[in-house]
Amino acid sequence: TRSTRPQRMLKAVQKNATKGNPESVISAIDYFCKHSEWAMNVGDEKGSILDSVVTEVNPSTVLELGTYCGYSTVRIARLLSPGTKFITLEFNPANVTVARQIIAHAGLQDKVTVVEGSSGDLIPQMKERFGITTFDFIFLDHWKDRYLPDIKLFEECGLLRKGSVLLADNVICPGAPEYLEYVRNSPRYENRYYPAHLEYTKVEDGLEKSVFLG
Ligand SMILES: O=C(NCCO)c1cc(-c2ccc(F)cc2)cc(O)c1O
Ligand SMILES: [Mg+2]
């Protein structure tokens, strides 16, 4: 039966990227998406902004919501200091299978734990399952209608500390209007919008950075 787009992306990585070289994995995926098939990775333009925020925060604990094929997982993991705890959550088991292989091709499998399940179920389990009390950096890139309920869950579970940084993809396209309204109207967050474009297109999109004030 016909392969899936993530499976074809994995094949392109295995064919064109050098094992153990994260930069070549990132380039191979971007090339595949620009010249073969569009896919919903954060991409190179927004990915560079992600890189700059991760580097600035230099986090000890990281959570990614929405692994997909592992492109942003590789972008983040390649920048982390040794000993950093990095968890990424993915609902779709087929994506988990592809992502683990792409992350392994980059040689970053020991830097990150890919967990299958829904964010709503897993976020309350972060303390008991992974011994994490608070997150220094959170990248939101999963179902856009989950951004708002999940940030409220982070607050309720005490997973944010003064200075925790949340970075949300796709706040314009597909959009997360309720999330944007919440963080921009809450006195508990300091926000900054980074204008960009939907990955591999000229369509307007952007990232919203929100710092928890405690
Ligand atoms: O749903 C998304 N992510 C959660 C599932 O993994 C997602 C969708 C799109 C997108 C799709 C279709 C279109 F027409 C425009 C945008 C883009 C993204 O960056 C995304 O993260
Ligand atoms: Mg996205």
Write up this protein.
With 214 residues, the chain is of the alpha/beta class. The chain contains 10 helices and 7 strands. Strands 3-2-1-4-5-7-6 form a 7-stranded mixed β-sheet, sandwiched between helices. Helix 8 links the parallel strand 4 (137-140) and strand 5 (165-168). Helix 1 crosses helix 2, helix 1 (5-16) runs parallel beside helix 5 (93-105) and helix 3 packs parallel to helix 4. The structure holds 5-(4-fluorophenyl)-2,3-dihydroxy-N-(2-hydroxyethyl)benzamide (77L) and magnesium ion.
Essential attributes:
214 residues, alpha/beta, 7-stranded mixed sheet, 7 strands, 44% helix, 19% strand, binds 5-(4-fluorophenyl)-2,3-dihydroxy-N-(2-hydroxyethyl)benzamide, binds magnesium ion
Please give the largest β-sheet.
7 strands, mixed
Query: For the largest beta sheet, what order do the strands appear in spatially?
Result: 3-2-1-4-5-7-6
Strand element count: 7
Which range best describes the helical content: under 10%, 10-25%, 25-40%, 40-55%, 55-70% or over 70%?
40-55%
Unreliable spans are none
Using the alpha-carbon principal axes, give the shape. Answer: globular
* Average pLDDT score: 98
Secondary structure class reads alpha/beta
Question: Which ions and ligands are bound to the chains?
Answer: 5-(4-fluorophenyl)-2,3-dihydroxy-N-(2-hydroxyethyl)benzamide, magnesium ion
Number of helices: 10
State the separation between the terminal residues, measured CA to CA: 52 Å
Strand fraction equals 15-25%
Run of helices and strands: HHHEHEHEHHEHEHHEE
Computed over alpha carbons, the radius of gyration is 16 Å
